[in-house]
């Protein structure tokens, strides 16, 4: 199945799941009310042929149930299945699935690499005299390196700034980004370049590989976030 067909299939599945979840009314923070209802419990949840036991924030199993002909699934369980984050705004009584407006999703927070080679993170890194955070390089002490990320088809866009690390060697390099083993983005990097911002479509990919070759150990990716 090609990437477009996989992405459409995942979007369709997510739309169906969210339609089920959003049937559950969410009371506003200003008007929370208790209601006693009678439900049918014991509903089994199977995703892509795999049985799933929904869990809450504490990791303990939580019930799915039927009420008035509608199946109710805990919203946190659905977001976990589809690799989406979830947050609650108690002021407005709003549940956010995925990215919350105005909030950043730093790649290393929401999706750290599961396998690396010559990979290094920075609390801050200085490029062209400016300090940057949420940064890493994939080629320390050797020129070339890489990092693998399991995106789980949860993101559509990767954004980052890339530049030469002040005080490092003056060597050219190349940055490559692979999505599901296919080269999707390639950039020649050189020591005279100023930090530059890039936005790379992820197409709902399952896996991402970020690779730096040549003199790649002299460069960092910073403010790396996903949407």
Description:
The protein has 227 residues and is mainly beta. It is built from three helices and 19 strands. It folds into two domains: 3-97, no CATH class; 107-226, NPCBM/NEW2 domain (Jelly Rolls), CATH 2.60.120. It has helices at 3-21, 75-81, 107-110, and strands at residues 40-41, 45-47, 50-52, 65-67, 70-72, 86-89, 94-97, 115-117, 120-122, 125-127, 130-132, 135-137, 145-150, 157-164, 173-179, 182-189, 196-201, 207-214, 219-226. The strands form seven sheets. A five-stranded antiparallel sheet has the order 8-13-18-15-16, with no helix packed on it. A three-stranded antiparallel sheet has the order 1-4-5, with no helix packed on it. Strands 17-14-19 form a three-stranded antiparallel sheet, with no helix packed on it. The two termini are 24 Å apart.
What key attributes describe this structure?
227 residues; mainly beta; Jelly Rolls; 5-stranded antiparallel β-sheet; 3-stranded antiparallel β-sheet; elongated; disordered N terminus
Could you outline the blueprint of secondary structure elements for this entry?
Blueprint: H1 3-21, E1 40-41, E2 45-47, E3 50-52, E4 65-67, E5 70-72, H2 75-81, E6 86-89, E7 94-97, H3 107-110, E8 115-117, E9 120-122, E10 125-127, E11 130-132, E12 135-137, E13 145-150, E14 157-164, E15 173-179, E16 182-189, E17 196-201, E18 207-214, E19 219-226
Antiparallel strand pairs: 1-4, 2-3, 4-5, 6-7, 8-13, 9-12, 10-11, 13-18, 14-17, 14-19, 15-16, 15-18
